[in-house]
Fold this sequence. Notes:
41% of the residues lie in helices and 18% in strands. By secondary structure, it is of the alpha/beta class. It has two domains: 228 residues, Aldehyde Dehydrogenase, Chain A, domain 1 (3-Layer(aba) Sandwich), CATH 3.40.605.10; 181 residues, Aldehyde Dehydrogenase, Chain A, domain 2, CATH 3.40.309. The strands form four sheets. It has a seven-stranded mixed β-sheet, with helices on both faces. A six-stranded mixed β-sheet has the order 5-4-3-6-7-17, sandwiched between helices. β8, α9 and β9 form a beta-alpha-beta unit. The longest helix has 27 residues. The radius of gyration is 25 Å and the shape is globular. The termini are far apart.
Amino acid sequence: MVNITQIYQSQKAYFSSGATRGFDFRREQLLKLKAVVKENEQAILDALYSDLRKPAMEAYASEIGFLYEEINHALKHLADWMQPETATAPLTQFPSTSKIIKEPLGVVLIIGPWNYPFQLIIDPLVGAMAAGNCAILKPSELAPATSQIMADLITKNFDPAYIAVVEGDGATVTPALMEHPFNHVFFTGSIPVGKKVLAMAAPHLTPTTLELGGKSPCIVDQRVNLKVAAKRIVWGKFWNAGQTCVAPDYLVVHEKVKTKLLIALQSAIQEFFGQNPQESPDYGRIINHKRFQTLRNFIGDGKLLWGGKFDENDLYIEPTILTDVPADAPVMQEEIFGPILPVISFSTKEEALHIIAQHPNPLSLYVFTNDVQMEQFYTENIAFGGGCVNNTLVHLTSATLPFGGVGASGMGRYHGQYSFDLFSHHKSIMKTGTWLDVPIKYPPFGNKLKTLKLLMK
């Protein structure tokens, strides 16, 4: 194992030198990061295929092209983000002016997951770099090829005193890393591991961002374009073989359109992946045998409408649709994180809310409806991290929208300026002129209280 303490101390010293604070340095490093990714696109795609059998189109869109958008957005707006913000000062502090200075936090730790093993490390890194921090990256050992290519690229192109990668078994390496008082920890992964990370951060009072998951519902109203809805649901659910934290976890479908929607879903699956998805070059695989066994067991938790075939040697599970799923079935007790889609019907919007309330605070919510009032009802009455109306997944592609969970699905938000702000300390400063010194605040107070009440009522 690398000497974690040595890396941490060298980054603390490098940050203290002030080297990362200037605009020119930050811009230069972001440009370098983009160039490094660009020069190694094929190697990154190959690693993602090795780990998850990701199709090149899917991998490029979600792991590489996505990062170009984030880096370009940061480069375009970085100068403005770094400028102090002017704030108003209360009349009682006249003659004063106020401003907010954004300063880097210091040394941050970014812990990534296996499902999008490149993007979900580098994306928060973009924000950390833009904000002027040093960073240690801990990629997932469950995606070893991607972990290795990331370590190679960072080590060859960046000073480890600025950015470093620490590989290894998360159960061993993460606690060793968390022994150090980082200025911020950013974790993407499961809820159980997120709880452990938060507990390890507590002794140092380290601010922590948790990007977790949960059971994200997809509501299909009776007033909807069923053909379009089915395509977008199938696309979002089976992208990366369902191993997406914001994938539609289960469908809540109005009973009047359930039959037609189920037919449309099956048609979309065949259109996208053919009669035998195992032979499709556009369909991924499950990360490992442990996850495969969990998903395989879920298949028996309802009536099999479509799919259900599997091949453990190939880590393949067919796109699967389940109906008549009991509320207490295992598949409805935890995030599925795989290509299995339970379908539950409802007759009233209140019934739909009751179903979703059994799995509160999902990371995402998807609503398919052409009824604006129904759209408003669901988006206002359900607590969720973010979501879409008449689409799936795409809200996370926008650098102008904050991405993050609520409650059990996480804490903190990032993307675009939200990433910059996340990795910055907003320092408040009030400056008071000396040309006038209002005496009301000084004793003896006498009858000054009356004047103060007039000013502050």
